[in-house]
UniProtKB/TrEMBL annotation:
UniProt xrefs under InterPro entries: AAA+_ATPase, ABC_AA/LPS_Transport, ABC_transporter-like_ATP-bd, P-loop_NTPase
Name of the featured protein: ABC transporter ATP-binding protein
Organism annotation: Falsiroseomonas algicola
Single Gene Ontology BP annotation: D-alanine transmembrane transport
Pfam families: ABC_tran
């Protein structure tokens, strides 16, 4: 039987008296696009952080392709194949799109953090160009990051997370703060990601999450309340109660 890319079993997390996650269990299969939806405070970011290793769960276990990663540090998880974006941008503003991607590619190579100027024959450079292409940024390859739109920065952040050839890509609210005009481009990019990659998308916005996902997990108060394909989400009475009930 195929091992899930991510297997969560009874994952709980407390912050003092606050139970941010309660007994969360689900499997994300290889190649699947999973969106985790929920209102403010539902526990989405806490779940994301426990999977990426920012902090361990208080109880429960997390496996990556059958390997227990519950207590591993973030960089160890990166090495095992988890790529991620951050809510706050980690881009180098004074450098170009290509230079940012090149640094990300180099950062995951044995000679990491070498800031040697790239040469034409550098394999890292070819890979950075390929990533720019896949992120639909090839026309902006020499643009300084400071001059990019918010949406273009998001595209670049996904490219940076892809530089280490992750098996699982974790995206934390990629559509947050995007203008309506930037959203379709982000969605197109997400839908074009290779199916060899497993995608877990933490998202507030149903208009991004539903078209991008194969399966949607809806959370509320730290618990999974619905797990269903996207076409069953909007009409689900529990989801309607949550989203209409709190003004979303
Ligand atoms: N480091 C922390 N210390 C204390 N409480 C925390 C911490 N991180 C999250 N919480 C609390 O845990 C609960 C879940 O928060 P979380 O950020 O995971 O929700 P969320 O679904 O991501 O919400 P949002 O959509 O607003 O980002 C909230 O009540 C939050 O205040």
């Amino acid at each position: 039987m195929t091992a899930p890319a991510i297997r969560l079993r009874g994952v709980s997390r407390r912050f003092g008296a606050l139970q941010a996650l309660r007994d969360v269990s689900f499997d994300v299969m290889p190649g699947e696009r999973r969106a985790v939806l929920g209102p403010n405070g539902a526990g989405k970011t806490t779940l994301f952080n426990t999977i990426c290793g920012d902090f361990p769960p208080t109880s429960g276990s997390i496996e990556l392709f059958d390997r227990d990663i519950t207590r591993l540090r973030p960089h160890e998880r990166t090495r095992l194949g988890i790529g991620r974006t951050y809510q706050t941008s980690l881009l180098f503003n004074g450098l170009s799109v290509l230079e940012n991607l090149f640094i990300a590619v180099r950062g995951v190579r044995p000679n990491r953090f070498s800031f040697l100027r790239p040469s034409a024959g550098d394999g890292g450079m070819a890979k950075a160009r390929d990533l720019a292409d896949r992120m639909r940024l090839s026309h902006l390859i020499d643009a300084e990051v400071v001059n990019l739109s918010h949406g273009q920065r998001r595209q670049l952040e996904v490219g940076m997370a892809m530089a280490g050839d992750p098996r699982v890509l974790m995206l934390d609210e990629p559509a947050a703060g995007l203008s309506p005009g930037d959203r379709p481009e982000l969605l197109r990019l997400l839908r074009e990601l290779p199916r060899t990659l497993t995608l877990v998308l933490i998202e507030h916005d149903m208009d991004i999450a539903l078209p991008a996902a194969d399966i949607v997990t809806v959370m509320k108060d730290g618990e999974v309340v619905v797990e269903a394909p996207p076409d069953r989400i909007e009409d689900d009475p529990v989801v309607q109660a949550i989203y209409l009930g709190d003004g979303h």
